[in-house]
Amino acid sequence: MKRSTPFVSFAAVALSAALATGCSDSASDASAGAGDWAGQPAPGATGVAPAGAQDFGLFRQILEAGQIPHPSTLDAVGFFAEHKLDYPAADCGEDICVHGLLAVQRNLMTGGQCTLLQVGLNSPVDPREMARPPLDLVLALDISGSMRGAPLRAVIDGLIAMVDHLEPEDRVSLVTYDTRAEVVFEDVPGDDHETLLTTFGGLASRGSTNLYDGLFEAFRLADKAPDPARQRRVVLLSDGMATAGFEDAGRMQALATAYARRGVGLTTIGVGTDFDVELMRSLGEIGAGNFYFLENPEAVREVFTEEVQTFLVPVALDVRLEVHAGSHYLVRGAYGMPGFSAGLRSGYAELPALFLAGRQRASDAIEGTGRRGGGGGLFIELMPASRQAEVGEADQVGLVTLSWTDPTSGERREQAVDVRNPHGAGEVPTGGHFTDATVEKGFVMLNLLVGFQLAAELALDADSGTAIGLLRALRGEVAAWLASHDDDDIADDLRYVDLFIANLEARGLNTPVFQPPEPWPQD
Length: 523
Prior knowledge:
The chain is of the alpha/beta class and 523 residues long. The chain is built from 13 helices and 19 strands. The chain is globular.
């Protein structure tokens, strides 16, 4: 049902156009069994995630601290990575299987038609049983004065816990950096626990933050003796901004790009709330690696132990995902794909790597402080090609092609999935059409992402009233969906919707509470 829209700020309207998904699900219409179903997901396969952010922990911690997050702290890849999606069985005969799922439904805020193509990636490989190649692992650790006390203690505990997950063939090097970078040890075997534990336990904080020197020295060590049979990776950890040496972000990004081309991957880890989130996120994406935010000591241990086997070793390199729309559709946008470039009829994304995720089933209980390891989702929004003829013939929705390089054999692989709609373009059957329940969850995820982003922008524009109105409307729909769906990921998201509302209310209103703005003015 169309909601009336009172006056809203210019920033709200501008952002709403930029975030025009058209594909946020109506909980009342998308309840299980209400729509046109094409199949059921098959839980149990391992998710596959793109390089980049692997959580939205910084956004969560800011809300938990009673503050209002800046829009830049929420990343679609990281948000989706904390949601496990069950795709069809991974029985394609490759280490990566591609699935094309379709949803046609009325959107949450305006009731307008939306067509969502969800690209699912999973693997028959169990990360717990994966025979990974030996690692040349270089740790670049920030030991500047701001790491003194609890932050450094938590990192030390995480490193100590990581030691048990190393293999004898692994080689570990350690670079610490404060005002300058220092090589503490080189090429220590993974089973030399005495050296590793003693050195980690003796780390102490001092000085300022020369992030560039630490990164440069780590890359130099990782690249000094390249061996194609071994994986080379730098893990950069920092809790702050660069305050010494070269502080230019572009110079550090160029460094990561150059070494990524030489086969040296980079994973970045941010600690606390004062680090340069945009720089650390971009370095992870550029460096064919991941970006993590460690909000507390337990999160440190989770990343360094439970996920060390998966986030360090890619399952695919030089990935290219192409989407070609059917004759009755146009490509409108994409979410969860870093660097997706879209034209009217097609779009593509080039990703440096894909990684195995840790969680096996969406129904698995959430353990610890985060939901990392879900694998996430890639969402492509389509719209009917003709405004005049809203309903077209039943036809191909799109062709999805994934190509990648096998990191073990070096061979190029390719898979293609043809996605079709039994209904005409622009036609929304009663209750909507869903390939399976996974697309339902995808709708709700997309609603939450867009709602969080829009509320953060509204708050930044001093329009708390509209932000509260938007979040309240979102909360009602998500709660209604959860009444008939048991999903820990979405239930946890709802908790942060409540926190966001409470923080905005505590700050005091500077505008009236309105219903959500029209986020899709061109619909």
